[in-house]
Write a structure and sequence with these properties.
By secondary structure, this protein is of the alpha/beta class. The protein starts with a strand and ends with a helix. The relative contact order is 0.12.
Length: 280
């Protein structure tokens, strides 16, 4: 089996590439700069449909997630990848929304919704991985530092905000299954069930570090002040807005009916197991 993995040098694609190789599949990294990849790789340009067609043609499947960037660029990338899929006709496409949700009841508006809609119309076998919050967010120095130093996990969600957290390792597990198993199509939501609140996250860190850890709910603006020096104002802005939006929501828990737990029999790692697997 030959699979193409987009973003294979990044946080989400790299675990997928490794998981495919560990499962005995031939995985090729689709990247802009092939010199950044030690193994099999192919150069692609998201603005060139021809380069994408060249990478996809004759493959058993591709793993896609749309790169972070300006909205207009993401829209262009979504259309280019969809055009390439229609032309190259890979055997299977697995698309991660990278945390965005798909509203199938409304006309597609975001890049993720547009790409998912075009996949559904392409006639190519596909599945959409729909995660919520990534545990890797908690590894930023502004969160992990206080855990190590003061036993406090600081994050911009309410104490009672339940969310279906998952990790990039969980996404990789689901992606490998969906690439090889074509019996499941459409949206597969990934994340903890029941959802985890801040205290649950802190308990996972406490169990791993074998020391007391508590959770501190902070405001989105406070979090913004912490991450802006790391990301810059342009990149931090959308992150801050996403947590302002969450502040007005009751929770962020996936539906069991379309969860990986029900559809694939795959449950996400606990916080403690995730930390252990990473060797933090």
């Amino acid at each position: 089996m030959t699979y193409i993995v987009h973003g294979a040098s990044g946080a989400q694609g790299s675990p997928v590439l490794s998981a495919l190789a560990a499962a005995g599949h031939h995985a090729t990294a689709a990247v802009r700069n092939t010199s950044a990849i030690g193994g099999s790789s192919v150069a692609v340009d998201y603005t060139s449909v021809d380069s994408l067609v060249n990478a996809y043609t004759g493959t058993d499947g591709i793993f896609v997630h749309i790169p972070i960037g300006p909205v207009e660029d993401q829209m262009a990338f979504a259309h280019a990848i969809a055009d390439a899929v229609r032309r190259a006709r890979p055997e299977r496409v697995v698309f991660s929304t990278s945390g965005a949700t798909i509203d199938e009841s409304a006309s597609p508006s975001s890049a993720a919704e547009i790409f998912a809609h075009q996949l559904a119309e392409s006639g190519v076998s596909y599945a959409v991985i729909e995660p919520r919050l990534f545990l890797e967010n908690l590894l930023l120095p502004v969160s992990l530092g206080p855990v190590r130093e003061d036993g406090r996990l600081m994050y911009p969600i309410r104490d009672d905000y339940a969310a279906s957290w998952s990790s990039h390792l969980d996404i990789a597990d689901v992606a490998v299954r969906l690439l090889s198993d074509h019996s499941v199509s459409g949206i597969v939501s990934v994340g903890a069930l029941p959802g985890l609140v801040g205290d649950d996250l802190a308990k996972g860190f406490a169990a791993y570090f074998a020391r007391p850890v508590g959770f501190d709910a902070i405001t989105p603006d406070h979090y913004g002040d912490m991450i802006t020096p790391l990301f810059g104002e342009g990149a931090a802005g959308p992150v801050i807005e996403s947590y302002r939006h969450r502040a007005a929501q009751p929770d962020e828990v996936i539906s069991h009916d379309r969860s990986a737990q029900k559809l694939l029999g795959i449950s996400p790692r606990s916080v403690q197991q995730w930390l252990s697997d990473l060797g933090v």
